């Protein structure tokens, strides 16, 4: 009996072995001892969005391998674009500043006659005087910025558009003016300021001290109009704004001021292959510590790595050219047809917020949901300046923004059509409100026969309705009798708009006041 059982067992084992060999020959894995779940298996042929993928028992064939690596390189190129926009945007501002001759930190650009539509500048406003300078902490070391008293909101951002310090009214000087000290990322001294800065004595003098994560930093200040004029703000900047290395504080270089009004310049990153070259410039110049390892790994996966030339071969250049086209298109979808839950300010409305989620760091649910990457792209693809002051609820101080790209029917705003926008009475703005329109291609002010494609309730003499509301008109020609309230558009071009409230009041935050929608008029 024992001998018979052993023979039977051998026969069964041989039979199972033969079955498994046969199964293997058919390209199937059945398992010798246990059933293998189908969900972990890869069929010999898989249909996907990038075509048919072929395998020999889970191993991709040569054609499939080539297809998969091409796809992986495109995916990473797209992600490098979406994640790299903040860095290349600051780089664009730096390059644009060089166009105007601002090649040192003591050379500041001032929009003495306000910012008009000549410069290509992401959603710049026509309502405040800008004072701008690029800091080079690698060249200059710790750098002092003296801000005049009464300055409007000002900010320093690092080379990835991260917040470094506020100045002026929302800053540590609280509008009284003062000396700010910006430390470089490789600073090794005793000062250890928190995010946003701290007050400290340095060589016997009081400074508001912040530390940046990058060498290149952008300083941007805003000055308010007085009686509709720029004179006071311009004079304040020219007299009181100073930027110099701390090492030269006893004999600082003389400030030079460049008028940035009525002057064409480009401050916008490329949307073609050159984008990656701009990104490589930033990665090469800045310390690796400016980015986290995952971001550095993403950039390195497409050939952008500190200390190495960016020299993609013909295949890679073709794929990255495709990737930047997809990344650019994706950014435009996020901006003009957003699907984010928190973007809309009101139900059934075109008005949305650029700071989706109410976080200047774009953290979802206080960080529990990580960083909202799409929200960050939506912002930086169309805007500049990152500060908590643009997000926080500050009744009667700071500013708030809303943007719209569609009319009441959900159609894109068309330069060939005429529209009416009603601003209800008692707009909740202690200082003023404004509406500026932009070119969707450049995200800069729309270039028309009007130098300022905007209306401002303090600067412009707007006609009011009997109930105190204001109707603004948009179109190629002004409606008869409505010229004072008309903003010109261009047939054949689209446009979109930003509504700004300076000194926003409670009805804005509790949404008991809301702007009208864009209504097509004949």
TrEMBL record:
Entries under InterPro entries matching the protein: DUF1214, DUF1214_C_sf, DUF1254, DUF1254_sf
Looking at the record, the residues that make up the DUF1214 domain are 399-505
Query: Which residues are in the DUF1254 domain?
Result: 108-245
Query: Keywords in UniProt for this one?
Result: Signal
Q: Which organism is it from?
A: Mesorhizobium australafricanum
The membrane spanning regions, by residue number, are: none
Q: Which SUPFAM superfamilies match?
A: VPA0735-like
Instruction: Give the range the annotation lists for the signal sequence.
Output: 1-24
Gene3D superfamilies found in the cross-reference section:
Domain of unknown function DUF1214, C-terminal domain, Domain of unknown function DUF1254, VPA0735-like domain
Name of the protein this chain belongs to: DUF1254 domain-containing protein
């Amino acid at each position: 009996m024992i001998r018979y059982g052993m023979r039977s067992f051998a026969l069964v084992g041989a039979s199972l072995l033969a079955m498994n060999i046969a199964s293997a020959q058919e390209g199937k894995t059945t398992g010798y001892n246990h059933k293998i779940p189908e969900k972990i298996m890869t069929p010999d042929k898989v249909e996907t969005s990038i075509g048919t993928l072929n395998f020999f028992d889970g191993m991709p064939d040569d054609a499939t391998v080539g297809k998969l690596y091409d796809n992986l390189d495109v995916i990473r190129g797209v992600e490098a674009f979406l994640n790299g926009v903040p860095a290349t945007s600051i780089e664009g501002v730096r390059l644009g500043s060089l166009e105007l001759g601002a090649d040192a930190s003591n050379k500041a650009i001032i929009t003495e006659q306000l910012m008009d539509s000549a410069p290509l500048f992401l959603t710049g406003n026509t309502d405040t005087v800008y004072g701008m300078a690029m800091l080079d902490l690698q060249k200059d070391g710790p750098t002092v910025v003296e801000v005049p008293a009464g300055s409007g909101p000002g900010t320093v951002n690092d080379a990835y558009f991260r917040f470094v310090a506020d100045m002026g009214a929302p800053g540590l000087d609280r509008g009284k003016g003062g000396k700010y000290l910006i430390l470089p990322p490789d600073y090794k001294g005793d000062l250890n300021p928190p995010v946003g800065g701290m007050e400290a004595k340095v060589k016997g003098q009081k400074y508001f001290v912040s530390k940046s994560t990058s060498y290149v930093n952008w300083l941007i200040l805003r000055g308010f109009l007085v009686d509709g004029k720029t004179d006071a703000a311009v004079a304040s900047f020219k007299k009181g704004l100073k930027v110099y290395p701390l090492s030269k504080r006893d004999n600082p270089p003389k400030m030079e001021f460049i008028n940035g009004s009525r002057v064409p310049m480009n401050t916008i990153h490329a949307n073609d292959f050159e984008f990656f070259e701009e990104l490589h410039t930033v990665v090469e110049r800045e310390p690796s510590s400016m980015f986290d390892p995952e971001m550095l790994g993403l950039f390195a996966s497409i050939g952008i790595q500190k200390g190495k030339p960016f020299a993609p071969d013909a295949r890679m250049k073709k794929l990255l050219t495709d990737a930047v086209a997809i990344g650019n298109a994706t950014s435009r979808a996020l901006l003009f047809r957003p699907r984010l839950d928190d973007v809309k300010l009101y139900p059934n409305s075109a008005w949305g917020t650029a700071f989706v989620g109410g976080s200047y760091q774009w953290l979802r649910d206080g960080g529990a949901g990580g960083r909202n990457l799409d929200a960050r792209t939506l912002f930086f693809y169309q805007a500049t300046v990152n500060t908590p002051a643009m997000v926080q609820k500050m009744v009667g101080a700071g500013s708030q923004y809303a943007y719209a790209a569609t009319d009441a029917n959900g159609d894109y705003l068309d330069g060939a059509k005429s529209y009416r926008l009603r601003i209800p009475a008692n707009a909740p703005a202690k200082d003023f409100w404004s509406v500026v329109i932009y070119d969707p291609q450049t995200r800069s002010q729309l270039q028309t026969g009007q130098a300022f494609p905007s209306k401002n309730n303090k600067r412009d003499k707007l006609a009011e309705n009997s109930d105190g509301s204001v109707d603004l008109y948009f179109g190629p020609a002004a409606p008869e009798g409505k010229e004072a309230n008309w903003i010109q558009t261009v047939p054949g071009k689209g446009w979109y708009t930003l509504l700004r409230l300076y000194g926003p009041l409670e009805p804005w935050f509790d949404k008991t006041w809301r702007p009208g929608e864009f209504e097509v008029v004949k």
